[in-house]
Amino acid sequence: MFRRRSSDAPAIADLDLAPPPAQPARQASKGRPTPKRSEVERQRRQPYSAQPTDRKTAGAKRRTDFQRERQARLRGEEWALRPADRGPVRALARDYVDSRRVIFSEYVLFIAFAAILLILLLGAAKNSLLVLYIEIGFVALIGAESLYHAGRVTKLARERLPGESTRGLAWYIAKRAMRLRMSREPQARVQRGATI
Questions:
Q1: CA–CA distance from 22 to each of 18, 19, 25, 26, 158 (Å)?
Q2: Exposed, middle or buried: residue 149 (CB in 10 Å: 0-12, 13-18, 19+)?
Q3: Predicted TM-score of the model (pTM)
Q4: Is residue 173 domain-resident?
Q5: Residue 6 resides in a domain
Q6: Nearest-5° angle of CA 57, CA 58, CA 63?
Q7: DSSP per residue, 107-169
Q8: Where in the sequence is the domain holding 184, given as residue range(s)?
Q9: How confident is the model at residue 127 (pLDDT cuts 50, 70, 90)?
Q10: CA distance 163 to 124
Q11: Which of 18, 152, 180, 182 is most enclosed, with most CB atoms within 10 A?
């Protein structure tokens, strides 16, 4: 079972063994105890110090900043525009809508008011089906007009601004066209009848 070692076998001490792997260096301590969570949270909760500290001047500054941003938005400066109004395609769409001489959507509220008044005067209000058909007609006209203008603007955008996205253009044009010219934001920068 146990055999004797032969005389020509190398001794265990003679074997060339690799040195044991070095121990990883211990990380030096940070020199202070770990703070408690409650202490860290207390330090995080610092009182809010607004610039300026006076409430009245802070309100005046906020109003001034709002007015400055609003004036820039009305002028059409890109930094002040809402995300839905930014980009060259939206600017082209605004100019196209503002240059149209007659847009049915712009006057739809006045026409709807006149139609409702006429229905009431004629006593046709009892026939609610007539009112429903008139409302559906208004919506259909606005939709058809918006799709027509969106098609024209999309064609112009593909010619002049290749690679720009035209997503949501019909809805954007419909919203702008339904507002009166003087209440549009950003304000119109082209005259009616101008070539776009």
A1: 11, 8, 9, 12, 68
A2: buried
A3: 0.63
A4: yes
A5: no
A6: 95
A7: GHHHHHHHHHHHHHHHTGGG-HHHHHHHHHHHHHHHHHHHHHHHHHHHHHHHHHSTT---TTH
A8: 86-196
A9: low
A10: 52
A11: 152
